[in-house]
Amino acid sequence: MKLETDPTSEFQKSISVTLIYSFVNVFLVITFCLVISLLLNRKFIGRNLLRAVFFLPSVIPMLATTIVWQMLLQNQAKGGLLNCFLLKLGLTPIDFLNDPHNIFATLFMMSLWTCGGMIVVFLATLQDVPGELLEAIEMDGGNAWHKFAKVTYPTIKPVLFFQLIMCMMTSIQIYTQSVVLSRNGAPYEDISFTHGPFDTVLFNK
Asked: What's the rounded Cα separation, in Å, for the pair 13 and 73?
């Protein structure tokens, strides 16, 4: 294929970086959603409100969400709210969208911001965890880790595996965020992939 043999093609680099992003993103999202769902499964005042807060961003179209994040994170010359706030505090503005390192951090934060659907799925699965088994472990002197490892994890394991596969699929298909956040779907600097795992771009023309 010409994409693979053409020395000017960025196809192989784009595939490599996308896969790295996908694996890191899956780990972050699964861990974050599982921890948040375990916390939201406890009984405390304002639990339902917090559940709604975490779920709400997931129902907003990705294009609209990305545009809002762009308005917040773009440089101060373009009116980026966060950088303008940093300037007022006397701090150095941060190039969130053009720096090869920061753009990955931005994409990861956006992914965590919009993963409320997975949190809801985990919450629903946690309702099926046998309460009597949790009480038995507690009576035997077990702690929270014992409850999770011996009862909770075996119960939610099939759903956890399914969500891992779905998250990997959506991570590999990332496109809207990278295109909207920058001119060509990548930081403007073309840094060689050999410099480091994140010293590169997602897509390049």
From this structure: 26
Q: Is the pLDDT of residue 172 over 70?
A: yes
Residue 64: which residues within 8 A CB-CB, separation 6 or more? none
Per the listing, tokens 């073309």 go with: 190
pLDDT digits (tens, 9 = 90+) for 13-51: 778 888 889 999 999 999 999 999 999 988 888 888 988
Read off the tokens for 137: 């472990």
Distances from the Cα of 43 to the Cα of 3, 39, 89, 129, angstroms: 54, 9, 39, 15
Name residues whose C-beta falls within 8 Å of residue 146's C-beta, 6 or more positions apart in sequence.
Answer: 137
**Paired tokens of 58:** 């997931």
What is the Cα–Cα distance from 38 to 148, expressed in whole angstroms?
Answer: 10
**pLDDT tens string 78-107:** 667 888 888 888 888 888 887 777 888 888
Domain 26-195 classification at class level? mainly alpha
CB 97 within 8 A of CB 73: yes
